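Hi R.,

As promised on Friday, here is the backbone we talked about, encoded as structure tokens. Could you run it through your design pipeline when you get a chance and send me back a sequence?
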């Protein structure tokens, strides 16, 4: 009768893993002890450099019965854009899905609008007015940024 032994990790892999964990803890402790400040957020950097907004638009994203999304100007209530199902707007849908999920977790509905802002330095920011969360849209590349930038350009249409 042969006995089977459970597979074990090689001793070298365990030592390497332990070393990496110890290195991470040591580096973190050194940063805390040396009181190295964390990197500033884009919001703080813009404030310190006195970067002003160039354009801004307050938008509300409303789910349509056909699985589309109607984007309305919150100030006028008029439609700024419509995303129809199967349209190549996955980035807008993805960003809004994440923000909506955060609102649901906090018990906030879809009524509060979002503010889309273009800054003097060319940055584009989407801010959730209900949670205060800001997303720097330039970080996602020019094509994805352009999807939101078009909402600043889009004229309003009737309801």
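Update: got your reply. Pasting your designed sequence below so it's all in one thread:
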């Amino acid at each position: 009768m042969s006995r089977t032994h459970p597979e074990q990790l090689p001793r070298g892999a365990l030592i390497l893993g332990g070393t990496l964990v110890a290195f991470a803890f040591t580096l973190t402790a050194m940063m805390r002890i040396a009181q190295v400040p964390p990197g500033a957020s884009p919001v703080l950097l813009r404030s310190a450099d006195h970067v002003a907004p160039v354009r801004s638009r307050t938008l509300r994203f409303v789910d349509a019965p056909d699985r589309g999304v109607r984007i309305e100007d919150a100030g006028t209530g008029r439609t700024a854009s419509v995303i129809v199902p199967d349209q190549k707007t996955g980035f807008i849908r993805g960003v809004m899905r994440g923000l909506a999920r955060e609102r649901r977790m906090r018990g906030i509905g879809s009524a509060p609008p979002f503010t889309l802002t273009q800054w003097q330095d060319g940055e584009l920011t989407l801010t959730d007015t209900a949670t205060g969360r800001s997303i720097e849209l330039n970080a996602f590349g020019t094509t994805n940024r352009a999807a939101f930038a078009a909402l600043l350009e889009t004229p309003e249409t009737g309801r």
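One thing I noticed while checking it: Residues 88 and 147 are 10 Å apart (CA to CA).

Thanks again,
M.
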